[in-house]
Amino acid sequence: MQNIDQSTKLSFLRQRLEDLMVEDIKKASHMRRDCSGYYDDRGRDEIVKVIPDYSGGSMVGGFILGLHAIQVLSKLAYDGNDGEAFGKFVKVYMPKYKAIPLYELRNSLFKEYGVYYIGHKGKSRFVLVAMGKQRHLKKINGETHLNLENFVEDIESAFIKFFDDPKKNVKRLIDHADKQVLKEPTTYRIYNLN
């Protein structure tokens, strides 16, 4: 497969990543239209629990996959450690988000299933919300609300902007396609960025 031209490789990589990232986030976070709720790690009884559709779905899973997709795309886009690459990607392709709190949310969810981030004014929280578009990125009672539907739309938009960006690092993408995608096109090893 190494004899495939650069344009075809990029197209193939884009389609594979779109299928595995964007579409999986949508599938994982599929929710019944009549429910809404919060993910709150404080365990308060008054928090409405999210009820996924019986075809499968997880609000928190959608956020985790979304944050992971940003991480993978950021490593495809930029050099540097995970945090630096993540910050650059968010700044360029998701500018309405603050990179550091979003990266700390990623760390908190990945490592502890928590929703905290340490800001310059101390510990803060995200409230992960489903079906609350009007609350997206709003600070309510000192907690930043992150609505799943908006978040998924913004990741999809960032994905498209990144792949359509004429300044993207084509060599890095081609190298990744050669190592991870075209080498074994029937496997799902594309998340290994080493």
Describe this entry's structure for a reader.
The chain has 194 residues and is an alpha+beta fold. The protein has one domain (6-181). The protein contains six helices and five strands. The protein has helices at 6-28, 59-77, 82-93, 99-112, 148-164, 170-181; strands spanning 37-39, 116-119, 122-130, 139-140, 143-147. Strands 1, 2, 3, 4 and 5 form a five-stranded mixed sheet that branches. The radius of gyration is 18 Å and the shape is globular. The two termini are 20 Å apart. Mean pLDDT is 75; it is low at 31-56 and 187-194.
The H/E string reads HEHHHEEEEHH
**How would you characterize the largest beta sheet?**
5 strands, mixed
Total domain modules: 1
Helix content percent band: 40-55%
The multimeric state of the shown protein is single chain
Total number of beta strands: 5
Share in β-strands = 5-15%
Structural class: alpha+beta
Q: Distance between the terminal alpha carbons, to the nearest Å?
A: 20 Å
Tell me, what's the shape?
globular
Low-confidence stretches: 31-56, 187-194
The radius of gyration over CA amounts to 18 Å
What attributes does this structure have?
194 residues; alpha+beta; globular
In brief:
The chain is an alpha+beta fold and 194 residues long.
SSE topology:
Elements: H1 6-28, E1 37-39, H2 59-77, H3 82-93, H4 99-112, E2 116-119, E3 122-130, E4 139-140, E5 143-147, H5 148-164, H6 170-181
Helix pairs in contact: 1-2, 1-5, 1-6, 2-3, 2-5
